[in-house]
Amino acid sequence: MSLNKSEKAAVIADVSAQAARSQSLALAEYRGLTVEHLNKLRVDARAKGVYLHVLKNTLARRAVNGTPFEVAAGAMIGPLIYGFSEDAVAAAKVLSDFAKGNDKLIVKGGAYAGKVLDADGVKALASIPSREVLIAQIAGLLKSPIQRMAGVLAALAEKRGAAAAPAEAVVEAVTAEAPAAA
């Protein structure tokens, strides 16, 4: 069923709006996938905040015209599923992870930060940890020196405390003898 002119304009407007909000675009060929597999892919994408859509390539080219994803227009050939995401790695990760478990989905390319990515570039982008993991790693790096310093200070205090104990015993002994000598 083909779309009339107003329906095509609505699709272009919808995809353009999504492209304007997104940081990355991933493209994959879905030839041979069953409806069941596509639905599972869509559910996974929705859960991770990825806008996944099967589009006619001419409509997709018009939708990304004037956006940073325009550089990927040359890769828009064949039956493709388009994944847009506001998170820089989410779209690439969803399509790459699904492609690992299903050999019918072939990652073709994408775009990030105004640069076109080939299939290996999309897979490399997918291998980057998520934003939450990166924040946790940075927090761990910031916590590590503070933790080491606290350990050193505790050891130093313990050492001084152990050295101070015999000195305190001598002071107590001297003060205890001093009234007796007087």
CATH topology of the largest domain: Alpha-Beta Plaits
The portion of residues forming beta strands comes to 15-25%
How do the strands line up in the largest sheet?
A: 2-3-1-4-5
Give the count of structural domains. Answer: 2
Structural class: alpha+beta
Helix-strand sequence:
HEHEHEHEEHH
Tertiary shape: elongated
Give the name of the CATH architecture of the largest domain: 2-Layer Sandwich
Topology (SSEs and partners):
Layout: H1 5-21, E1 24-29, H2 35-47, E2 50-54, H3 57-64, E3 80-85, H4 90-101, E4 106-112, E5 115-118, H5 119-126, H6 131-181
Antiparallel strand pairs: 1-3, 1-4, 2-3, 4-5
What does this structure look like?
The protein is of the alpha+beta class. It has 2 domains: about 120 residues, Ribosomal protein L10, N-terminal RNA-binding domain (Alpha-Beta Plaits, 2-Layer Sandwich); about 55 residues. It is about 60% helix and about 15% strand. The protein has 6 helices and 5 strands, in the order H-E-H-E-H-E-H-E-E-H-H. Strands 2-3-1-4-5 form a 5-stranded antiparallel sheet, with helices on both faces. The radius of gyration is 31 Å and the shape is elongated. The termini are far apart. The mean pLDDT is about 85.
